[in-house]
Amino acid sequence: MRLAIFILFSLISQGIFAQRQTFKNQEFFFTVGAGELGVEKFSPNEHLDFLNYVDTYPEYADFIVLKLGYKFDFLTKMSADIQLVMMDDIIPDNYDVSVHYYIRPWLGVGVGSMLNKNWITYFEEYHIQTFPEYYISDNNVRQFTTYDLGFYLSPAIKLIDNEIIKLQITCDLGISSFMKEEASFYYKKKLSNERMYDHYETKIDFQPYIQPKIDIRLKAFKIKEATLGLLLNSNYYYSKRSMNYFRTIQTWTVENGITKQVEPSKHKYSRVEYHMGMFLRW
Amino acid sequence: MKRVLKVTLDNVKKMKEINHIPKVLLLLALGFGIKLFFSCTPSNPDPFEMDYNNLNVTGIDNSERYLAYHQSIDTLYSDAVALKLTLSDTSEFYSASFSKNLMQTMSFPTIRADWSPSYIPRNKVVEIKVITLFDVNDSIKAGDDITENLLYAARDSFDLYHNLSQGISKLNGIQSDDRGSVIVLVLKVSVENTHAQFEVKLTIENGDELLSTTELFTIIES
Q1: Residues of A with CB under 8 A from a CB of B
Q2: What ipTM goes with this model?
Q3: Which of A30, A183, B37, B163 has the fewest CB atoms within 10 Å, measured from its CB?
Q4: Chain A, chain B: beta-carbon pairs less than 8 Å apart
Q5: Residues of B in contact with A252 (CB under 8 A)
Q6: Domain residue spans in chain B?
Q7: Which site among A139, A191, A193 would you substitute to test the B interface, given the most B Cβ atoms closer than 10 Å to its Cβ?
């Protein structure tokens, strides 16, 4: 994560201080937006399904997103777009970086990478519901953060590209996986000596996704060579996802452990985001 | 004449009072010196050696979320039979605690506050054996050795249980503050009887054996 942020800042710094001559149409932008997750939920079954605990309050907007970006053209037909993404916690630990090659002035193809943060919360509920005859060691709410790392191909079409308005549509086709996370529970059977330890370790498993994006830039006014304008964009992520994991259950003592691999059913997983902001191009 | 005599007596009295001041100062200095001496005496970091000579076994409740470590009971749930073994050295109880109290009294409290003795058994425990005096179920009858069905529960922990060897290691390790050690053993099997009673035998390295029999427990179904 730190490496990714370091690389992004390095690129931005390079863009500002070192490559003035090479980079064209440089642009800083920031946007503020909201996002809504839509995750299909299943009834609790034999094994814990972490994705049942992603979107805990579906009736509310799930997150506020602040994006800081730097965009520039280089090598005549290439364009780079670097975005640092912050969620409610204002930690820049999400990103979306892409590079496009424009075969025609209106048609390009690119590659990119993105990292999105997800919170898995209240999954202790599964154990409370499924094992009512057991105590959990404490009553704390369980939560962990899992990062979804993706790599994509991204065809792009510039539908409108003039001095006043620029409208681009891209469609990211990629694969992504939740990064490794761990969670564990201690149980104690009611009216019994029996104790149990349940350990979960999620595994990296890349699954395909699609993410169309629309991006509109409206020129507001120009001061010398700098253009200030309004930026609107939106994206819709869709995939069928599962968070697979290894589960180790130990009963009575640590010697009595059984590990099994669990692959829960795939959920329809979507995320829609709307952003609005400003850009400064020079 | 009477007046002169009174003035003279007053002067003598004052002189006597004045003469007490150095004595008081000397006593205070002496007290300070003694306290300083004991405060600067390095505490013995080595644990005191002790000899386990007493074993007491009681039943404790393990039916709830946490082990009720400090409360002995005579009624146990059939799936939650837990025994608390308290080993202690009663032979030299006073000498060590006297030494500790003396050092604390004779030292400046801020300097000596962290001084607390620790103890280690001179002769180690080599074996724990538990015999049931009542039938436990169809396969474990009165008089059978049930040691294999017992596990060691670490204190103040929600962790899993450990084998009995770790409980023995705990007994043989350095004990802080108290001349004794306590471990809890839990029974893995369910007691299918209305009563239970156990006999616990500890074998010490030097060949001594400590024996204790629990009280008669009433068993209620879990």
Answers
A1: 135, 137, 186, 188-197, 250, 252-255
A2: 0.76
A3: B37
A4: 54
A5: 151, 160-161, 188
A6: 1-40, 48-220
A7: A193
Q: How far apart (Å, rounded) are the C-alpha atoms in residues A77 and B75?
A: 83
Enumerate the H helices of B60-216 as residue ranges.
Answer: 93-105, 109-112, 164-172
Domains along chain A with CATH numbers: 2-281 (2.40.160.20)
Note the maximum CA span of chain A. 79
Nearest-CA residue of chain A relative to B77? A191
Q: What is the H or E stretch that residue B100 is in? A: helix B93-105
Q: How far is Cα B204 from Cα A207, in angstroms, rounded to an integer?
A: 62
Pick the CATH number of B48-220 from 2.60.40.10, 3.90.180.10, 3.30.420.250, 3.40.1190.20: 2.60.40.10
Tell whether B159 lies on the interface with A, counting CB pairs under 8 A: yes
Q: pLDDT by residue (tens digit) across A98-156?
A: 999 999 999 999 999 999 998 899 999 898 888 899 999 877 888 888 999 999 999 99
Q: Report, as ranges of residue numbers, the positions in chain B whose pLDDT lies below 50.
A: none
Could you read off the pLDDT of B122-179 as tens digits, one per residue? 899 999 999 999 999 999 999 999 999 999 998 767 789 999 999 999 999 988 767 7
Q: Contact A252/B187, CB-based, under 8 Å?
A: no
A118 vs A108: CA distance, rounded Å: 31
